[in-house]
What does this fold into?
Amino acid sequence: MSINAVGRHLPDAIPGYGPVKPFQGAAARVPEGHRDGGRLRAVYGGKDKVLPDLKAAIAASGLQSGMTISFHHHLRNGDHVINAVVDACAEMGLRDLVLFPTALFGVHKKLIPHIKSGVIRRIMGSVNGPIGQLVSEGGMEDPVVLRSHGGRPRAVTSGDVHIDVAFVGAPTADRYGNISGVGSRSACGSLGYAHTDAMYADCVVAVTDNLQPYPISRISIPQHYVDFVVAVESIGDPAGIVSGSTQITRDPLRLLISRYASQLIEASPCFKNGISFQTGAGGIPLAVTAFLKDAMKRRNVKGSFGLGGITGYFVDLLREGYVERLLDVQSFDLEAVKSIAENPDHIEISADWYANPWNSGAAVNALDVVILGATELDRDFNANVNTEADGALLHGTGGHQDTAAGAGLTIIAQPLLRGRIPCVVDAVYSVTTPGEVVDALVTEFGVTLNPRRTDLVEACREAKTVPLVPMEELVDRAKKLTGPMDPVVTEERIVGVIEWRDGTVLDVVRQLTPRK
Amino acid sequence: MKTASAGTVESMDCIVTASEADPGSGVTVQIAGASAARFGSAMRAAVLSVVSKMGITDVTLSVQDNGALDLVLQARTEAALERLKGGDVA
It folds into this structure.
């Protein structure tokens, strides 16, 4: 038993996970040794890597029961690849597979029978919806391991996780394995989450529904990483792959929160020429960006880059000169997909480049401002994004930890209540991101600053534009509105392990006791 | 059996359904929905306080919650009970 730097009691080892390295601080762990890598292979001659179907590719890959298979989530809720590959594995009699996706979506609930029948033994990656509920209720033998977008490539490059076969959904591929994220009806833009897997897996299989003659253009993952190519009818449903234009919130409460957040940014030392930001695709963050754009115009401030998941809104900022570049690990909507294919200042980056703490410097390190959400925040500013109020493990970590650790100003912006559930509590149920890297919470009651950031406290007092609310007051207010909370009732058994981006353990998630 | 209800399933509201119960059977409260896991005790107390204030001893109440605060929950409970009592079962 040990206590980590966010005060969580952790066992020395967890069945199905192994020894626990307790979290020591956001930048405490220093790696040793050299990078891991995939199997060496040599291909002398040959002009074609196309195999007739998935089963042929699975057989050729040498995949066996118990091995680890990886997938990217750029096809989001439209993805057909993961379900089809696991179906094929099941039909071929493979069992005990370790699924290592960059994320899973609602569409992947079709995997549940494969979990129950033992085809999938373990999931390392985010779980949500029905699979999250199943895991939370103890439906999987080994605990799920939650890693951030940077923690995952760190685990791969350092050898914590070895990928036996990477299946890469490819909107376009040629017969010798060059892969592009654009150029077809299943276009998803950036293939950022797939790069590291392609470089470090023992075998890489491209799965495409747009097979082209050699060579294609706008290549994301080049042929020398790819072993086999399979053409299928469809890799995904375009309606689920990209959303329509993401809408800025019109809810007055959320607009108020967004205005406060924008005023905080304007008052902060970050607000100057060269400012960079990440805001994702949520309603509030997009509105913050809109208010920020007004402020930049008014005060004649030019930004440098927008980072992370890119939307049409950021594409407009690039086009209108508010930022010089977009660094895109994931293209959220049609506008972003179109832009990355056409505009050389809209740059595709890998998850390693984006957020891995164990390389020679990730993009998040250069980030000034990030706007995030969280299910709850506590008095110490620790944030929980993984578990819901009822204790169910329903959300992945995403880039939350990485951007919070990298950005000069990390803002969590959201209403004080979601229904009756408060977003501030005495102690969060699960720690996803430690309070030491969270700078401000913005609610409809104003801006709550982490007292550690005395510079921000001073800047806001001087600017006199943002109402400041101490954390104590906010917690009390929430308690008065919602009443006392009942505790979550759990078993001892651990069903999820939440790693910090450096591979140390921040927290564990325990199996829920069925409610009577 | 006579029943009456009040409320909606909008966010931060709830539907409270009150049903007649046999004399001497007491007050039964069932709670389901968004806040049940963490606020079950507080919600039960809020509902029971309305029941006792109205002097009702035998009734079955079912709450389908979508994040209602006590203020709303109590108003919906009162309305459902009034409707049951008054025969207005809309």
